[in-house]
Design a protein that fits this description.
elongated, 3-stranded antiparallel sheet, 17% strand
């Protein structure tokens, strides 16, 4: 599967997922067990129970089709992409390149063994250096970086919500009020024409996703609220925070 053609199954960000891209080698396992896991656990201490981060790594090797699809799915939908630069692993750099080209930089976090000589294309990116002989020392720094990444993402997400709300017309707002209480819905054949216009704009603006295509002779359109759409619905108090979080799973 070529990354350009890939479409995630659900099409939205999982607020609780932190995806780790690192080499598959037992020599590097302590980085995961002694640095990444404790850092996430420490960051979770300051998060609400329904916001606790969950770490995810690819289950299969990247060179298998299932492994590659798994990586793409998580790369596109994880709230934080954590890249481990040890060994200058080609697969990690490839995944990092895809992340740079398709995802917000605020969702990306890099760590490297001290001292790390950055490649030319990483020289302007911020990364955390750790001491492989004493990983515990870097736990606090990484946990703080994780919390900072979450905070910056939240600020930018709030800005996106404000921009999206400011662009809503009467028709889009009516669609939000009419269909917003359900996670996904079908467009009824007798729906008012203004609903068609509103739905088209909401899809174009990234609040809704068209799930199914028309199937002659019966035309049915199915829609699914994506992450930004659910955030707007919550901000407008059409749904509550608990419902928004539930829709992410």
């Amino acid at each position: 599967m070529y990354a350009f053609n890939f479409k995630p199954k659900f099409g939205f960000i999982d607020f609780k997922k932190l995806f780790v891209a690192m080499p598959f080698h037992e020599d590097y396992e302590p980085i995961y067990t002694a640095l990444i896991i404790p850092s996430v656990e420490k960051a979770n201490e300051s998060l609400a129970p329904n916001e606790q981060l969950e770490i995810y790594r690819a289950k299969d090797k990247v060179y298998t089709r299932s492994g590659w699809l798994d990586i793409l799915e998580n790369l596109y939908t994880s709230r934080i992409f954590l890249g481990v630069l040890i060994g200058n692993n080609a697969n990690v750099f490839y995944e990092l390149g895809i992340a740079h080209a398709t995802q917000q930089i605020e969702r990306q976090l890099l760590i490297a063994e001290k001292p790390y000589k950055a490649r030319f294309d990483l020289k302007d990116l911020i990364y955390i250096e750790y001491d492989l002989s004493n990983l515990a020392v870097s736990v606090k720094e990484l946990s703080e970086a994780i919390k900072d990444t979450l905070a910056v993402y939240d600020i930018n997400n709030d800005r996106q919500i404000q921009i999206a709300e400011n662009k809503l017309s009467y028709y889009e707002f009516e669609v939000l009020m009419h269909y917003g209480t359900t996670r996904n819905f079908y467009l009824q054949t007798d729906a008012p024409p203004k609903h068609h216009d509103g739905l088209a704009y909401l899809c174009h603006s990234g609040l809704l996703r068209l799930v199914t295509l028309p199937k002659p002779p019966k035309i049915e359109f199915s829609f699914w609220w994506i992450d930004l759409g659910n955030a707007v619905l919550e901000h407008l108090k059409i749904i509550d925070e608990e419902e928004r979080v539930r829709r992410l799973h």
